[in-house]
Amino acid sequence: MNEQIPYTNSLASIQIASNPEPRCACALVLDISGSMSGDAIAELNEAVQCLINDLAAEALASKRVEISVVTFGESVELVSDFTSPRQLVIPKLEAGGGTPMGEAVVKAASVLEARKEEYKRAGLQYFRPWMFLITDGEPTDEDSAYWREAVRIVHDGDSKGRLLFFGVAVGGANQVRLDQLCPPKRPSQKLRGLRFREMFLWLTRTLTSVSSLNPGQTVQLPSTNGWSQIDA
Prior knowledge:
Helix content is 35%, strand content 18%. It is of the alpha/beta class.
């Protein structure tokens, strides 16, 4: 899958003296439901930490990329608000509970909007925010207002250039249901086995490329070959 990402900037002009770099906000929305127990949650924990370490090692990306983590399982939790990779500390994720996916997306979107407002008040330029969702199941709140609002947020955000959403299906995830959430032009990707590490390496390279842009430039996303699969 290849795609071009436009750069967006705030109209405000005041800069934060300590770090006036433009920001690329990426919300990780992670399924930690009971079905993720065992190898899956262990591999996910390791891969998330590798993502943080790899971004922290990049001189420019460590100043421009900000990561937040929202999990959904027993409940929806904001594990970490937006912060730089060098400051981000994620506790070990434990699997359990259901799959309130819609609520998690709504929560992540709320955190993203709040961060964008902070950028604007500070006069910081920013890239179109990212939301990267990983699930091995299907939403247990699909009949709720949360799910309907999540679909509206993602589709409206994509069509208006306000949000870049990626959905990743793991194992026996209901990909048909996940594709109802994903933008029509960017359907979900199926993770090959438990290759979380390869997937997050792709995300690291992509965020690093995006964060190196100047206003008005675009970047070609690398292919997802190597960690994604298409079922025949």
